What we know:
The protein contains two helices and 21 strands. The chain is mainly β. It folds into two domains: about 1-170, Jelly Rolls (Sandwich); about 175-255. The strands form five sheets. It has a six-stranded antiparallel beta sheet with strand order 3-4-7-12-9-10, with no helix packed on it.
Amino acid sequence: MDLLINLTNGANNAASPWANVINDSTTVVVIPAPDGSDSGWTVANDGTADAGLPGGTDLGQFPTSSDASWVSDTAAEFAYTLSAWTEFFYKLLLTGPANTNFVLEVFSSSDRDENPKWKVNGSTVQTLSELNNTTNVLTFSATTDGNGDAFVEVAKGGGFCRANAMRIILPDSASVTTTDTLQPGEDFTLTATNFSSPPVSPATFTDSEGSTITVPVTISGSGPYTAVGTMPTLAEAVTAGTSLLFGDVTIELST
Length: 255
């Protein structure tokens, strides 16, 4: 899931599902999910580091393409203008679920040869050449803290740098699926996708009545993963004191 953030002076808002963060406000802004619903994430200028970023009204380059193709024309053209010389004077607060891994991409563009500097959660500083930029972004891997917070800091490299847009990239939810018909005593194969680490045996099967059984599986692959196992026979299920499965079945693997 991708979450989009436009840094604006308030007069140049991007259409949903963009979140528009106004340069001179510390108001917390809900970041929409791609379908426009509440994503569970917010963004705000951090008042402890001055939210008063002067709002640029021109200079950005568009249309965008390549790695920056996600940036809308509005977000590419208009931006925060970074005018303070203080090192990393500008700070934005991202808030989402606690201890969540995500990737952040940031975009700057203007018709000047300036080089804004970005970092996330105190990471190594990365510099982006914004001169006529329509294709390049900086990429950071980060994790929210126990409160769900992550901090994005921007500093000017020279002149009047720009900070245009940010994209939070969240991993898709882990899922376990099979195309096999689950029958007593029969082999089955599962496919486990979007796992951040290898899943482990056993697999847990839960039916529509809430009855659950666990079945040993052998895991292989490096993502998506494959798990193979054999459903218990009727006699084994009775001996183990487990219930038979009826109706729809959900399958889970833990890590």
